[in-house]
Amino acid sequence: MELGKIARLALLSAALGMVAAPSYAQDKPAAGDAQKAPDAAAGPGPMSANPPAPPQPNWVKICNTDPNAKKEVCLTSRDLRTETGQTIASIAVRVVSGENKKFVLAAVPPGLLIQPGVRIAVDQNSPTNGKYSICFPNACYAELEINDAFFNNMKKGSNLVLQAMNQQAKTLNFPISLAGFTKAYEGPAADPKAIEEYKKEMNEGLNRLAEQQRNKLQAPSTPVPPSDGGPSIGDKAPVKGQ
């Protein structure tokens, strides 16, 4: 499933909802908070990582209007993909017309520790911490408010690193190149028709994921025969002297 396109749609939907209630993600704790881990702020300061080796998609800008607040919400986002083309993380800068605040919205794989949240940093600059807002079967989403200094670092920086902790309390790094960010942010938004296409592909992707999960559950397990012709597991070994 193409998590990146689904991530942008989910982030855009969340962004539209946060215009009317901007404090929701900060005031309401995320589900699964019972699992404790060291606070992300207690970790190392500046983060470093090499840019991902596989070819990565470019930054893209998507805008839509919140029908309730009557304000335009724009996301400038980029995905991180593996060598097989699977999207494993996504980062987006959210801005709302008429407001000075800027937010970074991050998508990471599910199954990570909830309590530590995420951290992001540009090059060797100090990281910024954020908490998860919501989790879906395909990804978890976090929101971080950023100041002008952090945003300017993104515009002139080389790489951004998104950090999260796995269930073994080990830090996972998701490096995302900042090449092309400024051009996309300051340029025109993508065609609105692309948003409708994202919605269609999101539904198709969710259906494919559900079908894959059903196939995995229904697939019979195949016993592995002995490779050397010897006794199978469970056979009694010969007794010496008989």
TrEMBL record:
Asked whether the keyword RNA-binding is assigned, the reply is no
Q: Where do Polar residues bias regions lie?
A: 210-221
Report the leader peptide range: 1-25
In which residue ranges is the amino acid composition biased (Low complexity)?
Answer: 29-48
Q: Does the keyword Lyase apply?
A: no
Protein's name in the database: Invasion protein IalB
Q: Which UniProt keywords apply?
A: Signal
List the Pfam families. IalB (PF06776)
